[in-house]
Design goal:
There is one protein chain. Helices cover 28% and strands 22% of the residues. By secondary structure, the protein is an alpha+beta fold. It is elongated.
Length: 427
């Protein structure tokens, strides 16, 4: 059927058709079969084909389409770099972890009772992460789901508790009868914590700084307790050697908080703790010698395993093996990197703040523990936003628990592990 005057004249034989007219005639009446084979792109263009000829592509649209096609693989490539090994690193400020903290010392070999810090072989910090208390929900002690229903008038109170200042730093109560708990054991090289008051007492310009190493990571407390227990072994030259069990000297709550900072050099990670056992009155010479305060904090920095060793011991120890997403995302260099993205050295940053708690989940991780502040006011200053006060309030409540319940949290046997050290006395 003719659609224009020219086509009608051609059909009536008044004028002869040209080659162009023949081509237009073929395109003007598409067959039913060809309509079924129209691609999605052609279907989108169909409303524009109302005239006698196909629309001329816009140069800008063509350029945009080519740019889009060229950029698409590049975007996917960038996403792969940021999400290496299925992990994507992103710096988090605020509370990145909270839980319960325990301090142990182990006497030297063949020393039955430690009397001073010179009789100590190792000093350990045990971290057991916990979810925040407000995430536990309103659970009844009987476990009855019906008892979990809450009166509508109390909903506002619960919301206020969740949003209370510092609530993200308060750990949920421990599951005393469960041995399946994630833990990290950090061994401190100087056999005590860095003293926040040392700078004032000695007049030094720098804060007291000690090395720490993650010596054990796992999720089975039974194996940890076995490692902390007494040991006996044979030697060729000295015969049977005996090591007494580790002594628990303090227990409390902790929070790890990252400060705000646009660049790595402006970021700090504070680990603050408040001791529930022993109480402030029972703190004795053993806690004082080990640098344990009722409330205190220190700064954590994590060493890049690619950076040169800082001492002879590090030079002879096997460096931690972090995955690529940590090496590239945190330190700015690693396997497959053409150039470092952070720092001036080819290996990236030598030290970094604890941007993610995953940095502490690898055996052999090397840490710098830098003295910060002591006391409840100092704890609040380090953690900020009411976290220190909230942690203090929580641990003051937990201080009412018996020493037996503290030992039950870890599965420690009172017949094997002495309790005197938790009362402030050397043993």
């Amino acid at each position: 059927m003719p659609t224009t005057r020219r086509q009608a004249a051609i059909q009536e034989g008044r004028i002869k058709p040209t080659e162009n007219d023949k081509g237009r005639k073929k395109q003007a009446v598409p067959t039913r079969k060809s309509r079924k084979q129209v691609s999605p792109q052609s279907a989108d263009d169909t409303p524009q084909r109302q005239g006698n000829s196909a629309p001329t592509p816009n140069k800008r649209n063509v350029d945009d389409a080519q740019d889009h096609a060229a950029k698409k693989p590049k975007l996917e490539s960038n996403s792969t770099k940021q999400q290496i090994d299925g992990q994507k690193h992103e710096y988090q400020s605020g509370t990145i972890e909270r839980g319960h903290i325990y301090f142990f010392y182990r006497p030297r070999v063949q020393v039955n009772e430690a009397r001073t810090i010179d009789d100590i072989r190792n000093f350990h910090i045990l971290l057991i992460p916990r979810p925040p208390q407000f995430a536990q929900g309103q659970k009844s002690s009987s476990g009855d789901e019906g008892a979990m229903k809450q009166d509508p008038s109390d909903m506002g109170k619960t919301e206020m508790n969740v949003l209370a200042p510092g609530a993200d730093a308060v750990p949920a109560p421990d599951e005393a009868h469960s041995s399946k708990k994630n833990y990290r054991l950090i061994t401190v090289g100087k056999k005590r914590l860095p003293n926040p008051e040392a700078k004032k007492e000695t007049g030094k310009l720098t804060k007291e700084t000690f090395w720490g190493t993650v010596t054990s990571v796992g999720n089975d407390l039974d194996s940890l307790v076995k490692g902390l227990g007494q040991k006996s072994y044979e030697t060729k030259t000295r015969g049977t050697r005996h090591e007494g069990p580790a002594r628990l000297v303090a227990r409390g709550g902790y929070a790890i908080v990252n400060s705000e900072g646009e660049t790595p050099s402006k970021r700090e990670t504070h680990l603050g703790y408040h001791v529930s056992h022993p109480g402030a009155v029972e703190m004795g010479d053993v806690q004082k010698s080990l640098g344990i305060f009722s409330a205190s904090s220190f700064i954590i920095q994590v060493k890049n395993p690619l950076a040169p060793a800082a001492n002879t011991q590090q030079a002879h120890s096997k460096p931690v093996e972090y995955p690529d997403w940590i090496m590239q995302g945190v330190f700015g260099a690693g396997k497959g990197c053409e150039a470092q993205s952070r720092g001036r050295e080819h290996y990236g940053l030598r030290f970094a703040s604890c941007e993610t708690p995953k940095l502490l989940d690898y055996k052999g991780a090397e840490l710098l523990l830098i003295a910060a502040r002591d006391g409840e006011e100092g704890l609040e200053t380090s953690l900020g936003d009411g976290r220190g006060a909230a942690l203090t309030e929580m641990e003051e409540k937990e201080a009412r628990e018996s020493l037996g319940s503290v030992f039950d949290e870890l599965g420690l046997n009172l017949d094997e592990f002495p309790v005197e050290s938790l009362r402030g006395s050397w043993i």
